[in-house]
Amino acid sequence: MPLRLPPLTALRAFDSAARHMSFAKAAAELNVTPAALSFQIKSLEEHLGAPLFHRLNRAVELTEAGRVLAPGAAEGFQTLAAAWQSARRLQDNTTLNVTAGPAFTAKWLAPRLYEFARSFPEIDLRFSATLRLMDFARDEVDVAVRFGYGPDEGLYALPLRREWITPVMSPEMATRYPTPDSLRDAPLLFDHSVDFLDPPCDWTTWFRAAGLEFTPTHGSHFSQADHAVDAAGAGAGVALGRRAMVVKDLHEGKLVAPYTLALETKAHFRFICTLGTENRPQIKAFRDWILSEITKTDYVTDSLTIIPVEDIPPL
């Protein structure tokens, strides 16, 4: 025989009172009178057959039964609220909440958003630039663009273009350092946002791939990829630029990649959303737009010899 649950309004009154430890504050939160809230809790106690609160002079305390019920009631209402919000979002085909890393947002997404807005004026695009792990339901996120290896279990994850790194610099600096060997004397920039890559895609590995045994120890260090790339564009030094971070600047001539050697990593950007939502109109439109924008700069790889970093022998 199925368990007969008490009325939802009574449970809601209990949850609010247990959180506030005050009938008056709970009544204000639920926009009811204290008498009405007290009646709901009393009916819940009658349904249970035991008191849930000790009524004191100017306060209330949970009984043992109340302490057992309170965590489950709170979790239940949180779960119900999240499910209801997710169901409501499914009816909205004009709002798209996207999260991406700060560097990808700054160097890839933001400069192109005008094109998306012009092509899809009916979609209200909202961005959160963060690397924090997101819960699609709790954080009301529709799409995440993330860089790494995965896996993205239980999610729709579309790999974007393969990711490579190669030295990039201003056109003026390229005249001063025409060969890989000349980079020994160049001001090198270090991007520590890729320190997690295994095998590493760092300066030592790139020099080794170029047939040079050189481990640089001096230079400017950056925690964000876009900061390193911007410094290179300003003429401050030479950075190892990742494809997604430099293709637009290479396309526009703000940066040059004067050498033909690039290292490919198995880490890549992925377009991620909840499984089953990938064909919602605004999500599909955003996905197709990203893929279309990527193809516009595919030619940048034409002059590069791309070597998987796994093929570079270790020291």
UniProtKB/TrEMBL annotation:
<dbReference type="InterPro" id="IPR036388">
    <property type="entry name" value="WH-like_DNA-bd_sf"/>
</dbReference>
<dbReference type="Pfam" id="PF03466">
    <property type="entry name" value="LysR_substrate"/>
</dbReference>
<comment type="similarity">
    <text>Belongs to the LysR transcriptional regulatory family.</text>
</comment>
<dbReference type="InterPro" id="IPR036390">
    <property type="entry name" value="WH_DNA-bd_sf"/>
</dbReference>
<keyword id="KW-0804">Transcription</keyword>
<feature type="domain" description="HTH lysR-type">
    <location>
        <begin position="6"/>
        <end position="63"/>
    </location>
</feature>
<dbReference type="GO" id="GO:0043565">
    <property type="term" value="F:sequence-specific DNA binding"/>
</dbReference>
<dbReference type="InterPro" id="IPR005119">
    <property type="entry name" value="LysR_subst-bd"/>
</dbReference>
<dbReference type="InterPro" id="IPR000847">
    <property type="entry name" value="LysR_HTH_N"/>
</dbReference>
<dbReference type="InterPro" id="IPR058163">
    <property type="entry name" value="LysR-type_TF_proteobact-type"/>
</dbReference>
<dbReference type="GO" id="GO:0006351">
    <property type="term" value="P:DNA-templated transcription"/>
</dbReference>
<keyword id="KW-0238">DNA-binding</keyword>
<dbReference type="Pfam" id="PF00126">
    <property type="entry name" value="HTH_1"/>
</dbReference>
<dbReference type="GO" id="GO:0003700">
    <property type="term" value="F:DNA-binding transcription factor activity"/>
</dbReference>
<keyword id="KW-0805">Transcription regulation</keyword>
<protein>
    <submittedName>
        <fullName>Transcriptional regulator</fullName>
    </submittedName>
</protein>
